[in-house]
Amino acid sequence: MTPSPRSLVWALALAVLAGCGKGEPGLVPTEGRILYRGQPVDAGLVVFTPDGERGNAGPLAWAEIQRDGRFRLKSDERDGAVVGWHRVTVAGSSQRVIVPPHYRDPDRSRLLREVKPGSAGPVDLHLD
Fold first, then answer.
1. 87 and 53 in contact (C-beta within 8 Å)?
2. Residues 38, 29: Cα–Cα separation, whole Å
3. How many domains does the chain have?
4. pTM > 0.85: yes or no
5. Mind listing the pLDDT tens digit for each residue in 76-115?
6. Does residue 120 lie within any of the structural domains?
7. Paired residues of 44 in beta bridges
8. What does residue 127 show for φ and ψ, rounded to 5 degrees?
9. Which one of 58, 89, 91, 119 has the minimum C-beta count within 10 Å?
């Protein structure tokens, strides 16, 4: 007996719904560069925390800042960050470039960035 088109549609819908459970969220490779007053922040830590006020949830993503100011985020030891809006904090520990302490506080940094699905390019941070 050949399945009807209607039963194929239902089977496909059930397969899609089964894949939408509460498993681990997908991560998007996310990298960028951090500059303070035009100079690379050459050491420290950057943290992207999903912004619940904008409907985002999932693990936070973090990276060590490299000598040239570049970073590549990881979440739970996997590369990438969850899609959506994030509150960003930067704790620069550079000898050459001193990042003001308010950038370490998610309530005071006022840094927000959106991680978009797919390859949307670098997420650069220009601090003043």
1. no
2. 25
3. 1
4. no
5. 999 999 999 999 999 988 777 789 999 999 889 999 999 9
6. yes
7. 92
8. -95, 145
9. 119
Instruction: Give the pLDDT score at 73.
Output: 96
Distance, CA of 34 to CA of 44 (rounded, Å)? 10
What would the DSSP string read from start to end of the chain?
-PPPHHHHHHHHHHHHHHTTSSSPPPEE--EEEEEETTEE--SEEEEEEE-GGGT--S--EEEEPPTTSEEE-EETTEESEESEEEEEEEEE--SS-PPPGGGG-TTTS-EEEEEPSS------EEE-
Do the domain assignments include residue 34?
yes
Does residue 77 sit within a domain?
yes
* Contact indicator for 27, 81 with CB cutoff of 8 Å: yes
CA dihedral 84, 87, 93, 95 (to 10 degrees): 90
Instruction: Please name the residues in contact with 126: beta carbons below 8 A apart, sequence gap of 6 or more.
Output: 35
The amino acid at residue 116 is K
